[in-house]
Amino acid sequence: MFSIPIFQNVYITSSRFLVRYTRSLFSDNHYRVGIVGSGPAGFYTAQRLLKLNSNVRVDIIERLPTPFGLVRYGVAPDHPEVKNVITNFTNLLKDTRCRFYGNISVGTDISLSQLFTYYSAIVLAYGADSDRKLEIPGENAKGFLSARRFVGWYNGLPEDVSLDVDLSSQTAVIIGQGNVAIDVARILLTPTEQLEKTDICNHALLALRESKIQRVVLVGRRGPLQVAFTIKELRELLKLKQITTLLTKEDHDFLEPIISTLPRGRKRLIELLYKTSRQSLHTETSNKCLEISYLRSPTIINTNTEGKINSITFEVNKLQDHNSINTKAIGTGVYETIECGIAFRSIGYKSIPILESVPFDNIKHVIPNERGKVTHLDGTLYKGLYCSGWIKRGPVGVIASTMNDAYETAERVHEDLTADTLQSFNTDFKLSDLIPEGHRMVNYTDWSSLDTEEVSRGGESKPREKITSIQEMIRIMNNK
Amino acid sequence: MNTCRIFSRSISYKRAFFIHTASLYSYNFKSIHLACQYSPQLSCFPITYSPYRAIHTSFRLRGDEQLEFNESVRVTFIDRDGNHVPVIGNIGENLLSLAHRYDIEMEGACDASLACTTCHVYIQPEFFSVLLPSTDEEEDLLDLAPFLESNSRLGCQVLLTRDMQGMFISLPRVTRNFYVDGHIPKAH
Ligand SMILES: Cc1cc2nc3c(=O)[nH]c(=O)nc-3n(C[C@H](O)[C@H](O)[C@H](O)COP(=O)(O)OP(=O)(O)OC[C@H]3O[C@@H](n4cnc5c(N)ncnc54)[C@H](O)[C@@H]3O)c2cc1C
Ligand SMILES: NC(=O)c1ccc[n+]([C@@H]2O[C@H](COP(=O)([O-])OP(=O)(O)OC[C@H]3O[C@@H](n4cnc5c(N)ncnc54)[C@H](OP(=O)(O)O)[C@@H]3O)[C@@H](O)[C@H]2O)c1
Ligand code: FES
């Protein structure tokens, strides 16, 4: 009975949609939005914008020949489900209103003023390509690595694959207790037979097979209540076969009475830490262990005569307020040392300014903005310029947070487009017109051929074997 | 005990899902296989599927039990822009696939493999207790969903049941000032 009106409704909506869509494809007047960066922020901004405004066409401009940002070069190889998002992103690349321009670094190969000549709006979504430093003596020692670069190394980021990773010692120390620190610990400890089935790069797999690391120490400057990792990642670590997670019982005793008072999102995590601390003992079957240690700030990276790390000196901290999540650590003047042959600084990524003319907040390391619209340092709005993702909010948050944030930016762009404050165009334009001849740009078809090649190199057991040299990528694309 | 025991009131929704979706949707062969295995007496599935049509059938069970299956329920999504979108879902179908059928912008980045939280939804509070409780894995993820509320669930994990008739499901609105991961970093 009621099926007919509903059906008609759908019919009407879809025909209206079709008319609008077709009109937008052939209409002369349209808006062009250039998005800088092809990580989740870039894709989700594009997706929402295309949905909100049928008069928009989007170009996604990427520094690397390959799309997807940290989904390809950050997300751990043993988290293939997280990478399913690539299917959605690829569908967007197949949309006639969205184009991919890879191997173009904005700020180097092309300037912002050049882009503004051809685009109604520019969205900066270039993420965080650097990392925070500890600023302590010995930070440049051999064997003291940035976790960000180590992640790039096992995930095949071209600039990081030559990183010198020496896994010949027994103990590895990781400074910081975020999810990246957990990723690094898990990769170091997971039996390589499990990693063999992932898209981890072959060079990393070979090195990990030879690894002598038995003990990984995850050191935080605050206490168990303030850890930055999340419960899913902790649970995964605890489930690793043949690995024991060691938590000192005394460090966690104080938690029991406060667990029930904690907000959702913290409560279950702390509960799990507490429970684990009651039972963590070295088992007979495990030969490797992960230790979680608190209230220690690194003060010196000590080296041997060859300049290679051999230990780290930590100052023991106490907390201003033991029971508060948002509290500060204070040094006690007591020091202790942990011996190790390799260590990782995993205290957060950091965004850097890539364009001189774009305002940058040098304290928070983000582009100042109002709901995604870039503001000058005096608070006035920057016409036509927007930002999205980690560059907008700082390098925190999972893909879902980045998505919400990108949606907000897309809505801000859409507001300005509807208010007719931005320039529209009535001719077609190709970014290649702006790029000097001889520079190899990468389009979606090129990427597809590279993708196919990687999948085929993965053979039977791996989902893909990533190609890690840009020259080789280009050669493969040229040969197809 | 008759062969039809599984159709008693204690039937799990998951199993109901297999039976109904197999008859309606031909999603995957496994479910058809299961349906046939469980219900030889339902060898002909008479309904042709149309997403825009409510389907209402009852099965006569052997023995004295009569169970009525409303195979679809009407629920309403409130999308990110605040629009109300009434839809008709199949029992056993998850909210993510339902939203996708109606082109509602629910992301589902990990393809329902419980790894992303982008299918985060709010369930109308009156209906929250009607839902099967969430698993630990779902709770682990929800803990890090932006804009978490007490009526939050992951859309890909919520399977429609008859009791959800008339339920409202809203998507997180895009707002400012959310903090992520429940972690509050400290400036030193
Ligand atoms: C190690 C690691 C693991 C993670 N694992 C998970 C996980 O399992 N699940 C989860 O939900 N989240 C995970 N995250 C978080 C998730 O990756 C981020 O939320 C998300 O990638 C941020 O998106 P973005 O687009 O802002 O930045 P990015 O993903 O970094 O994308 C930025 C893009 O811009 C490009 N770019 C940089 N400079 C330029 C330039 N000058 N011109 C053009 N392009 C440029 C970069 O090459 C890059 O492709 C992880 C993060 C890290 C660091
Ligand atoms: N599987 C996943 O979902 C996944 C995987 C990887 C990354 N991510 C996401 O990506 C984001 C980035 O992760 P991240 O681990 O790089 O950052 P993060 O979560 O911000 O963690 C940084 C850690 O470093 C510590 N730290 C900062 N400065 C320090 C200093 N000077 N000395 C000692 N310790 C210091 C912090 O402690 P304080 O709290 O005391 O500052 C914190 O423990 C996070 O939002 C994370 O959830 C997600
Ligand atoms: S779609 Fe990823 S958790 Fe639901």
UniProtKB/TrEMBL annotation, chain A:
Pfam families: Pyr_redox_2. It is found in: Mitochondrion. It is an enzyme of class 1 (oxidoreductase). SUPFAM superfamilies: Nucleotide-binding domain (SSF51971). PANTHER family: GLUTAMATE SYNTHASE 1 [NADH], CHLOROPLASTIC-LIKE. GO terms for molecular function: oxidoreductase activity. Its main location: mitochondrion. It comes from Oopsacas minuta. This is NADPH:adrenodoxin oxidoreductase, mitochondrial. GO terms for cellular component: mitochondrion.
Automatic annotation (TrEMBL), chain B:
Transmembrane segments: none annotated. It comes from the Eukaryota. One of its GO terms (molecular function) is metal ion binding. Gene3D superfamilies: 3.10.20.30. Its cofactor is [2Fe-2S] cluster. Pfam families: Fer2 (PF00111). Residues 73-175 form the 2Fe-2S ferredoxin-type domain. Keywords: 2Fe-2S, Iron, Iron-sulfur, Metal-binding. One of its GO terms (biological process) is P450-containing electron transport chain. One of its GO terms (cellular component) is mitochondrion. Belongs to the adrenodoxin/putidaredoxin family. This is Adrenodoxin-like protein. It comes from Oopsacas minuta.
